[in-house]
Predict the structure.
Amino acid sequence: MFLSLIRIIKFSLQDISRNVWLTIATVTILVLALLSVNTLLTVDVLSRHAIDAVKEKIDISLYLKADASEEQVTSLKTEISQMSKVKQVMYTSKADALRSFRETNADNPEVLAALRELGRNPLSPSLIIVPNNVEEAPQLINEVKQIDSDIIESRDFTDNTLILDKINDITKKISEVGLFIICIFLFTSMLVAYNSIKVAIYTHRREIEIMRLVGASNSFIYLPFVLSAVIYAFLSVMLIIILFYPFLGILQPYLEVFFMDYNINIIDYFLNNFIIIFGLQFLVVSIISVLSSWLAIRRYAKV
Amino acid sequence: MIKLVNVSKAYLKNVKILQDINLYIEAGEFVSLVGQSGSGKTSLVKILIGEEKVSDGRVIIGDWDITKISRKEVPYLRRQIGVIFQDFKLLPQKTLWENVAFALEVCGQPQGKINKVVSSVMRLVGLEDKKDRYPHEVSGGEQQRAAIARALVHQPKILLADEPTGNLDSINANEIVDLLIRINNFGTTVILVTHNREIVNHLKKRVIAIDKGRVVSDQEKGKYLL
Ligand SMILES: Nc1ncnc2c1ncn2[C@@H]1O[C@H](COP(=O)(O)OP(=O)(O)OP(=O)(O)O)[C@@H](O)[C@H]1O
Ligand SMILES: [Mg+2]
């Protein structure tokens, strides 16, 4: 059994080396298919991160008058808390605001000096409203706009929902086009794998004929070609791994600029999910190329 | 033992190229099969090695009814029947030794056994000193001898030779026939398909003649008729 395995591997390698250019062509097409898959995956990961980043920035703040009393603030807070679209309301007192202002400007002596000069706390207390879910943010903002209270000094809404919609839109379009491209590549891969095995069988037709005559079992005749198909898959996944990480390395600095304070590391993502991403790709490509080579074997090697 | 009972074969509907063939060949016999081109000799050989199925009748080899042999079983039949052809069917990029060893390799035999068997069959056909040459570096007769060596590696009970001398001059042809006789003397059944009148007449063994798919004569110590 083990011996047969070694001979099957030997045969398969012989088949691959005798048709080097064909192997290169097949692997190239498979690599292109995988490149489109991985690019789409990258786009997907990035858009999910972008959405998270934007969601984090949805911010509904009510700035209150400095002289608002404790009861007024509490009753306003309760009123807002009871609104159906509100998840949480956080109160930042004047003192809290000052503390966090000092912290954010800790290495900015001029600002701190100016603050000291002023001699009093110029900041307003505020209520920060967290929506139940981001999709409802625009309605919530409308509702908050209509709250009528004496103690509200100003309202500040950073409405990023439009951006969210845009991101969702773009991602959807890219995914659609991407899926289409992947389908084309998958189909081409099948055709190319089929033809490579067909040619491999043709190159080995004398061997196959003789193997038949001398009583080699069917599996011994077709397994080398199936193995070649798996090797195509293996080579293409190896190549895509080698090609894709440098590509991500080039991408990463741009992402850091684009996402600014939001923490993103696309290389880490591909490293942490290495097995699942590339293992799955190897599996799928193997299945595709084995399937198409099997069709070629059935047809041309008549096993 | 080979037994054909009412065998008919048609590749195309209604065009029977073999008809009502009844043959009984004893184990250890030497039989020449003669007939004009297109009379169905090669088709008969193909039926015996399970490459073609009969349209009608039964084919029995030893105690094995191969009439409806499955694709999975064919390899086991091939290991019991050696075959050689007019065109030798050697692999050009392998030496004679490698060509013979190939037949055992693809059947999963261990290397030690391969070495032993290949050297013994190479000695039998008289090619020990040319075993490392490539097919294009030896004569046609020597190529055919290598093909015979390959056909013998599984120690088959039957050796089918489909016009083995067709590409050879008479000296080489006679050598091949002598070799076949020697193999027959070890107890192997030999079926020799040939066009060569001299060889058949010289052999003085059983001759079966077929014409248009029918057995037209079957004689012990026969002559080439037709
Ligand atoms: N695969 C096939 N399909 C259809 N017809 C075939 C096929 N193989 C052979 N034949 C026909 O069957 C007949 C017998 O062919 P076969 O090869 O058995 O003859 P043969 O006696 O071996 O001839 P030769 O002496 O020329 O080798 C021929 O008429 C041939 O055309
Ligand atoms: Mg013929």
